Amino acid sequence: MSKKIDQVLFSEKVIADKVEELGKRITSEYSKDDQIIVIGVLKGANIFLGDLVRKIDLPLSIDFMAVSSYGNSTTSSGIVRILKDLDLEIEGKHILIIEDIVDTGLTLKYLTENLKSRNVASLKICTLLDKPLRRKCDLHIDYVGFEIPDAFIVGYGIDYAEKFRNLPYIATIKE
Ligand code: PRP
Ligand code: MN
Ligand code: MG
After folding, report:
1. Does residue 167 fall inside a structural domain?
2. Is 130 close to ligand 1, i.e. is its CB under 6 Å away?
3. Where is the Phosphoribosyltransferase domain (predicted)?
4. DSSP labels for 9-76?
5. Catalytic residue among 51, 100, 103, 130
6. Residue 76 is assigned to a structural domain of this protein
7. Are residues 32 and 45 in contact, defined by beta-carbon separation less than 8 angstroms?
């Protein structure tokens, strides 16, 4: 069963404009003296993070975590496993978690609880896409690029069965 691109939801240009806007907002809401660690959630957030950090005009460090919630299926299992933990020490640091998409919210619910227990100075979440209709838990998101309906989408880091991450735009897929 192979999937094909259906409709483009957000073009490369529309994404770039939004990334710039988010970068400016983030720049204005922290101080140059804050010790900021931007944490990308692998693998989906990789491309968004790479573009976003170049629009944040503040000193910061970058780290990654890898967690698994979906495997190769399109539905959430609700089970979150840490596959790769942080390299950096985050105690006393200002943490900004970067996600490509928040769906049920279970991945970030787990991650934020986990990171908050490490005595961070602050913790905020930035996601490019949000599917609020799919939420299964209470989660506060500080920066949202676009709210989207409950359609299966790919591109700009987001996969279907590990494919389509390299598309420069975000699109829906069909059979
Ligand atoms: C996707 C997406 C988010 C998470 C959101 O990652 O990138 O990390 O699911 O789902 P949730 O809000 O229902 O928890 P996935 O687990 O597919 O891994 P990937 O980033 O490696 O594709
Ligand atoms: Mn992910
Ligand atoms: Mg995935």
Report:
1. no
2. no
3. 15-160
4. EE-HHHHHHHHHHHHHHHHHHS-TTS-EEEEEEETTTHHHHHHHHTT--S-EEEEEEEEES-TTSSS-
5. 103
6. yes
7. no
Any ligand 1 atom below 6 A from CB of 127: no
Please give the residue range of the domain that contains residue 43: 12-149
Query: Ligand 1: which of 103, 127, 148, 170 to mutate, most ligand atoms within 8 Å of CB?
Result: 103
- Residue 100 CA: which ligand is closest? 1
Task: Please give the number of the atom of ligand 1 that sits closest to the Cα of 107.
Answer: 14
Q: Is 63 a member of any domain? A: yes
Q: Is residue 1 part of a domain?
A: no
Residue whose structure tokens are 């804050």 = 34
CATH code of residue 20 = 3.40.50.2020
Ligand nearest to the CA of residue 70, numbered in listed order:
1
pLDDT in tens, the chain (175 residues): 689 999 999 999 999 999 999 999 999 999 999 999 999 999 999 999 999 999 999 999 999 999 986 555 555 566 788 999 999 999 999 999 999 999 999 999 999 999 999 999 999 999 999 999 999 999 999 999 999 999 999 999 999 999 999 999 999 999 8
ipTM value of the model?
0.98
Q: Is 150 a catalytic residue?
A: no
